Amino acid sequence: MLVRSLLLLLALILMAATAEAGKNKKEKAKKDGSDCEDWRWGPCVPNSKDCGLGYREGTCKDESKKLKCKIPCNWKKKFGADCKYKFESWGGCSAQTGVKTRSGVLKKALYNAQCEEIVYVTKPCSSKIKSKSKGES
After folding, report:
1. Residue 47 and residue 91 share a domain
2. Alpha carbon separation from 127 to 92, 95, 109, 133 (Å, rounded)
3. pLDDT of residue 56
4. I want to staple 108 with a disulfide (CB 3.0 to 4.6 A). Which of 26, 33, 74, 84 is the partner?
5. 66 shares a domain with 49
6. Which residue has the higher pLDDT, 66 or 18?
7. How far apart are the first and last CA of the chain?
8. In the predicted model, what is the mean pLDDT of residues 21-50?
9. For residue 31, what are the CA distances in angstroms to 7, 24, 55?
């Protein structure tokens, strides 16, 4: 009988804690939320240098907000941190230019960023000749 009472008490405590957590999430959404639906977001501006933690400003009618954001330090500056691309494999090395090329198709534009549909990137050809690993013959 004592075990049942303890289990019932434990179940009631867990239900109360779950209900309170759900209430806090709703209150937080109301506090951060806005009636405005047409937000315009600017680019992520790093706090220092050209990558790392920063913020982006958004406006909607007469409201404005700042959101925390992060620009990875290995991002392609040419495309912007808010443009995400799906890249194909690198092409062969051009003997004339000494570079290889690949293209990327826009996968996602975050925060209504203005992104190019297709981008091209190049990199120098490797001067090293890759040798077969020891396990291959």
Report:
1. no
2. 13, 12, 35, 18
3. 92
4. 84
5. yes
6. 66
7. 74
8. 68
9. 36, 10, 19
